[in-house]
């Protein structure tokens, strides 16, 4: 990431509270987690993030309720990425080296995704890889509708 400190104030807290709107906005909420669009330009429509409602440093700091919700909700989202958006595969990443607020990236991979953007490579996208905001918004709306139904 750039030299901007995403922890002062905490970007994760701003996203889950609604003070900051990522592309795609908030797609779903549960008692312990918020599903929202990724807070950066994306090369992959449907790249979303599950963030803890409560400020927690990492998975090991989640309260029991959020920890119980995490697996089932992540699986539902990843199924929707495949069924609704046509992704061939979906990745889950919880790295936490930059933003110190628990978040799990759920990243779809499509048939036409260049191999250099597979897996962790998705974080290394070049400016020319980034998709138009309207496409990212449409994918987010489709996921939100699928999860609500």
Fold and architecture overview:
- With 149 residues, the protein is an alpha+beta fold.
- Helices cover 29% and strands 17% of the residues.
- The protein is built from three helices and five strands; from the N terminus they run αβββαββα.
- A five-stranded antiparallel β-sheet has the order 1-2-3-5-4.
- A hairpin with a 3-residue loop joins β1 and β2.
- It is globular and about 40 Å long.
- The mean pLDDT is 94.
Write the layout of secondary structure elements.
Blueprint lengths: L10 H7 L8 E4 L3 E5 L10 E5 L11 H20 L5 E5 L9 E7 L23 H16 L1
Antiparallel strand pairs: 1-2, 2-3, 3-5, 4-5
The main sheet orders its strands as 1-2-3-5-4
Whole-number mean pLDDT: 94
Biggest pleated sheet: 5 strands, antiparallel
Instruction: Write down how many β-strands occur, each being a DSSP E stretch of 2 or more residues.
Output: 5
Helix and strand composition category: alpha+beta
Radius of gyration in whole Å, from Cα? Answer: 14 Å
Count of helical stretches: 3
Spell out the helices and strands N to C: HEEEHEEH
* Large-scale geometry: globular
Task: Please mark out the parts with pLDDT under 50 across 5 or more consecutive residues, or reply none.
Answer: none
Distance between the termini: 35 Å
| Helix share, percent | 25-40%
β-strand percent reads 15-25%
């Amino acid at each position: 990431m750039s030299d901007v400190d995403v922890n002062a104030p905490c970007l994760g807290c701003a996203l889950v509270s609604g003070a900051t709107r990522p592309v795609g906005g908030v797609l779903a909420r549960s008692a312990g987690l918020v599903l929202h669009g990724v807070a950066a330009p994306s090369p992959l429509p449907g790249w979303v993030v599950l963030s803890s409602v409560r400020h927690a440093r990492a998975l090991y700091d989640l309260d029991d309720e959020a920890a119980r919700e995490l697996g089932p909700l992540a699986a539902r989202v990843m199924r929707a990425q495949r069924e609704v958006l046509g992704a061939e595969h979906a990745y889950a990443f919880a790295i936490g080296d930059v933003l110190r607020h628990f978040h799990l990236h759920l990243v779809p991979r499509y048939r036409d995704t260049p191999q250099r953007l597979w897996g962790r490579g998705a974080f290394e996208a070049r400016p020319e890889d980034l998709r138009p905001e309207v496409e990212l918004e449409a994918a987010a709306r489709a996921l939100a509708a699928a999860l609500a139904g």
